[in-house]
Amino acid sequence: MALFFLKKNQxxxxxxxxxxxxxxxxxxxxxxxxxxxxxxxxxxxFLRSPYFNVREDVIQLFEWFCAQKTLDKTKAKEQLFGADxxxxxxxxLRMTYLMRLxxxxxxxxxxxxxxxxxxxxVAISLRKRGLSVPFGRQKKWLHKTLESQPLRDVAYYEAxxxxxxxxxxxxxxxxxxxxxxxxxxxxxxxxxxxxxxxxLICLNxxxxxxxxxxxxxxWESEVVQFAEKNFAADIPVIAxxxxxxxxxxxxxxxxxxxxxxxxxxxxxxxxxxxxxxSLFIWAINYCVRRLNLGEKRFFQEVTDLYxxxxxxxxxxxxxxxxxxxxxxxxxxxxxxxxxxxxQFFIFQYKNALKxxxxxxxxxxxxxxxxxxxxxxxAVLELLQQVxxxxxxxxxxxxTLLLKTWYELGEMETLxxxxxxxxxxxxxxRVLGYHRxxxxxxxxxxxxxxxxxxxxxxxxxxxxxxxxxxEHLTEREWLLEKMG
Length: 483
Description:
This protein is 72% helix and 3% strand. By secondary structure, the chain is mainly alpha-helical.
């Protein structure tokens, strides 16, 4: 966006000029593109409500954005103003109005999804108006609703704090010496603070483990000691973060992971989806680190987490699954040998993948399953159906194809494939670990094709080289082919 200053009546003002590319990449355009078809219809209802908006041109602008694939400011101005040669400022102003309304829609949507928060605000309003009888009814409803629902997460204790605080505010005028609700509010506030602080301490521990960050959470030992002494036995949200903390700070002691995992799987209904998602991801990442150390039994541990995480929607966001989660779940299930569940998962969650990843992720993972079942012709058919645009997925598909040609005994085809795969790596400039690993797979597969199996010294030398190679994900497969 270019900025030009003009002198007018001795005062400086400015005009914003923006081109089509800037319009395409504007925050407004990005926000509208994030809406599903269902959400766009809901936004239109919101914009047509005179309580929120009385400007017809803003509605027209939203409809125009929804209908366009390529955004052009000239056409947008024609949509709003017809043939009138109005300056870009007029369009920019309406884009600003629309952005503000869409932000208000997002806030309203979040508000509509939180019944407890809505009714707490009603209670606050009734209390401020001095309407003690309706406030009393609202307070009783809130208390009953809070205690009857299963969630015992931080939001539950925040709501309890607010309810006890408003009850104290309402009753302190009539009974100024009664501190029952003030004490209850104080207890709930303590739990909220300690739970939130523990969550941040755990997040800090995760950051330190992954990124080697030096930041140290303030009062870490004091908060942990206070939580263990006062809340660990009775407050699940604090107990689970304490288990998580011990797992993260002492990863070598597996008992902490097992205690955390047990409580996590037994407490799914106590925490919100967002809170559960973070806890699951931390537990899964712990398993991945142990797998990277060569501890294969953690394939079963991570599968035990993936299954309920997927089936209960915890690892889905907006009903979508990340392609990397999709790949990892299949990889873990194949390692545990639970092929029937893997097949169910591949088909059941195909449509939960974003459209741009769907066919490639589905075909590749189904090919992995077919390979595990020794259906090698099916592997070839699946891998040749899709163009894998992601370089790493493409390399993984080429590696699976390499193994399939070997299993089928198509050695001439395999030799050609190795040459093509090597050229692909050099052409794509794959860097770091993935480059070295793929080139090593090619190198040792090539040696398998050309080794003299009658020369025992040559065979043992190759076996020893494979065992010592630092970057080699297909080590087991290569050793298996050596017998």
